[in-house]
Design brief:
Blueprint: E1 2-3, E2 11-14, E3 17-18, E4 29-33, E5 36-41, H1 43-46, E6 55-58, E7 63-66, E8 68-73, H2 75-81, E9 85-86, H3 95-107, E10 115-120, H4 133-139, E11 145-149, E12 154-157, H5 159-164, E13 177-182, E14 185-192, H6 196-199, H7 207-222, E15 226-234, H8 240-251, E16 258-264, H9 272-278, E17 289-297, H10 328-341, E18 345-349, H11 352-368, E19 377-380, H12 386-395, E20 398-400, H13 404-416, H14 419-424, H15 428-433, H16 451-460, H17 477-484, H18 486-490, E21 509-512, H19 521-524, E22 529-534, E23 537-541
Parallel strand pairs: 2-6, 3-7, 8-15, 9-10, 10-11, 15-16, 16-17, 17-18, 18-19, 19-20
Antiparallel strand pairs: 1-5, 2-4, 4-5, 7-21, 11-12, 12-14, 13-14, 21-22, 22-23
Length: about 550
């Protein structure tokens, strides 16, 4: 038995399989005390820590793991989207269904109130295209409408929304963005920085609104066994109000999960001045709310054909290589300034052209002010080249990929770029062998928060249609779980306090109804979380109301 001291446990889980972490022994039981792991070991040894006040949970053979850690998702936008129009394929599989959902919401609102929706995928609609603004006009003639594609990088607005934003047929596309026209007229489609004029006139949320979003989304994460996450862009929509909401949620006990808060520090959307005034720096905070890295967007999304590539997308001309949101000089200056101040960076870069821009900036900053353990990150980092991999290793720049993108978007990717590039994308095996500790995440609400598609794809490299892509990057389930636990903690400089079930680390545990380590791969997709413990306290139990 491994223990941190002679004391009766507050909670004991026994009679099952406790996976403590990659390379650690599987044990039968675990004891928690004071919010942390007290001991792990055989049932017979852990039984000695059971006292009259100990809550004993019979695992009944089930698998327990460290609480999962989604290393890149958007907690506030996810919770906000729960109250907006659900346009995911599961809810609106056709254009007619999408327009009906918009019309239904408009009918329930006063004239002039915004109709906002999220989650449509034009490739999966029956029409294979984005809705047109005229179609949204017809669905909601008296309301401004703004609907966001699943990737969060493209959106469609109706005429009223465009008018409120001051966008006309003559408005040029801004640098790093698109305001689409056909035959000289607005289609309603906007991408990247082309969205900002509309985002600037959306109704602002209050702190209470955003705390509600945090609670809704956090409760859902707990029901999946996710106890920690990185909020990937605090300030992206409601600026400093989002940080105030996190502080209020934490202060009032309404923060359901542990949050690593990434700070928007982009060219046009930044909260860094307020952070500096408040003395907030990367690494500050506590075990529930920690200040994370600075976020910059350098390109868009592969599905939206706005990820910046060095080779054109299939079916396009030589100029169809996506969009760089910032110039080289802008990225270099922003990264150098933040790095010198002591911030970590988590920079959005999906295509190899954007990754090149980011690597150049990070290498220059590290050469100027060396810090071998800063652990700057490239978020998504899906389409890198072998030479870029070598540079990441040399500078210990971490990838923060979403393997679930291959599950949900892999078949789409095969229509957008050459098959060999898709097979080489999201190279989890190579990253692991290079010592770069690739984490696992969903970028929710870009894809579903549920972790099982992620785990399934990591151990099969299969899409939701069963297409297998790049089998050389198949992981073992232990490696996949490590990406969702220890590696995610490592990416936040928190591997000494969480990510493994060892004495002294945080008592965050997930219990699943399926033995993920031995089940058939297809059974992973139907697995469920039965129990979630955060800091030694049961916070979710399937079939009952969470405490």
């Amino acid at each position: 038995m491994v223990t941190s001291g002679p004391v009766n446990a507050e909670i004991v889980l026994r009679g099952g399989k406790v996976w403590c972490g990659l390379g650690l022994d599987m044990v039968e039981a675990i004891a928690l005390w004071g919010g942390r792991v007290l001991a792990t070991g055989p049932d017979t040894e852990i039984a000695s820590l059971i006292g009259p006040q100990t809550r004993v949970i019979d695992l009944q053979g089930r698998l327990a793991t460290p609480g999962l850690n989604d290393a890149h998702m958007h907690l506030i936008p996810y919770g906000t989207a729960m109250a907006e129009v659900d346009l995911r394929t599961s809810a609106a599989p056709t254009l007619a269904a999408l327009l009906a959902a918009v019309a239904d919401r408009a009918a329930a609102l006063p004239k002039g109130a915004w109709v906002i929706g999220r989650g449509y995928d034009h490739f999966k609609l029956d029409t294979g295209r984005h809705p047109f603004r005229e179609e949204l006009d017809e669905a909601a003639p008296d309301n401004p409408v703004y609907i966001v594609r699943t990737d969060g990088h493209l959106a469609v607005a109706n005429s009223r929304a465009l008018e409120l934003a001051g966008i006309t047929d003559e408005t040029p596309s801004p640098p790093g963005g698109l305001i689409e026209r056909q035959n000289g007229r607005l289609t309603g489609l906007v991408a990247e920085t082309g969205r900002e004029a509309i985002m600037n006139v959306l109704p602002p949320a209050t702190v209470e609104d955003l705390v509600g979003s945090i609670e809704r989304a956090g409760a859902d994460l707990l029901s999946r066994g996710i106890t920690s996450c990185m909020e990937a862009a605090v300030g992206i929509r409601d600026g400093w109000t989002e940080m105030l909401a996190y502080q209020a949620a934490h202060r009032t006990g309404r923060l359901p999960v542990r949050v690593y808060a990434t700070l928007m520090g982009d060219k046009t959307r930044t909260i860094l001045p307020q952070c500096l005034d408040a003395g907030m720096m990367s690494g500050g905070g506590d075990d529930m709310l920690r200040i994370g890295p600075v976020k910059i967007f350098t390109d868009g999304s592969t599905g939206g054909r706005t990820a910046a590539m060095t080779r054109p997308y299939l079916g396009g001309d030589a100029e169809d290589v996506g969009l760089l949101c910032l110039s080289d000089d802008e990225v270099n200056a922003m990264v150098m300034d933040g790095h010198r101040r002591g911030f970590r960076f988590a920079i959005h870069a999906i295509g190899d052209a954007a990754i090149e821009q980011v690597l150049n900036a990070l290498e220059a900053a590290l050469a100027d002010t060396p810090d071998p353990d800063r652990r700057h990150r490239i978020e998504h980092c899906g389409w890198l080249r072998p030479d870029q991999m070598e540079r990441m290793v040399a500078a210990h720049i971490l990838p923060a990929p979403q393997p679930a993108f291959l599950y949900y978007f892999g078949d789409l990717y095969l229509t957008l770029v050459e098959a060999e590039r898709v097979e080489a994308s999201h190279p989890m095996r190579t990253w692991i062998e290079a010592g770069l500790q690739p984490s696992a995440s969903t970028d929710c609400p870009v894809v579903e928060i549920d972790p099982f598609a992620n785990l399934y794809t990591m151990v099969t490299r299969k899409t939701e249609r069963g297409t297998q892509i790049g089998t050389e990057h198949i992981l073992t389930m232990e490696e996949a779980l490590n990406a969702y636990t220890f590696a995610s903690a490592y990416a936040a400089h928190e591997e000494t306090i969480k990510g493994r079930l060892i004495p002294g680390q945080l008592g965050d545990v997930a219990v699943f109804d399926t033995d993920l380590l031995t089940c058939a791969p297809e059974d992973i997709l139907s697995a469920q979380c039965d129990l979630t413990i955060l800091g030694g306290r049961v916070v979710y139990e399937r079939g009952t109301d969470a405490p």
